[in-house]
Write a structure and sequence with these properties.
The chain starts with a helix and ends in a 7-residue tail after the last helix. The protein is globular, with a radius of gyration of 17 Å. A hairpin with a 2-residue loop joins β1 and β2. It contains two helices and four strands. A two-stranded antiparallel ribbon has the order 1-2. It has a two-stranded parallel ribbon with strand order 3-4. With about 120 residues, the chain is an alpha+beta fold.
């Protein structure tokens, strides 16, 4: 199902990215389907929005239910593991919030509710 959704929204994403170069949405490089022995594997290649390698990786969902993992085991951390306060100057905060709002409005316009 994700392949079909991605395929239908790609033309809209291309236009959106041309007009919103600061978007934090991932850029897609390709979507592939490989069928071997009757089994189909679907692969989506996409960019990383980070400018450098991540020291820690979080899967943030905006909820606290079942959202903590033991950080000693390594791997992806969750909402309750994120204990930092992020402070930005006023203009940067305003710009980041605008990009997030614009990205959210775009995703809503193409009917995507859960983008992760």
């Amino acid at each position: 199902h994700e392949f079909e959704v991605l395929n239908s929204m790609l033309p809209h994403m291309m236009l959106y990215f041309e007009q919103n170069q600061d978007s934090l949405l991932s850029r897609f490089f390709g979507a592939y389907a490989l069928t071997v022995g009757g089994q189909t594997l679907r692969i989506i290649c996409m960019s990383n929005v980070l400018k450098r390698p991540a020291e820690r990786i979080y899967d943030l969902k905006g909820t606290t239910e079942d959202r903590w993992v033991d950080p000693k085991k390594g791997g992806v951390l969750k909402d309750k593991n994120f204990t930092y306060t992020m402070l930005f100057d006023f203009d940067l905060r305003k710009d980041i919030l605008q990009v997030i709002c614009d990205d959210s409005d775009f995703l809503d316009s193409v009917g995507v509710m859960d983008y992760s």
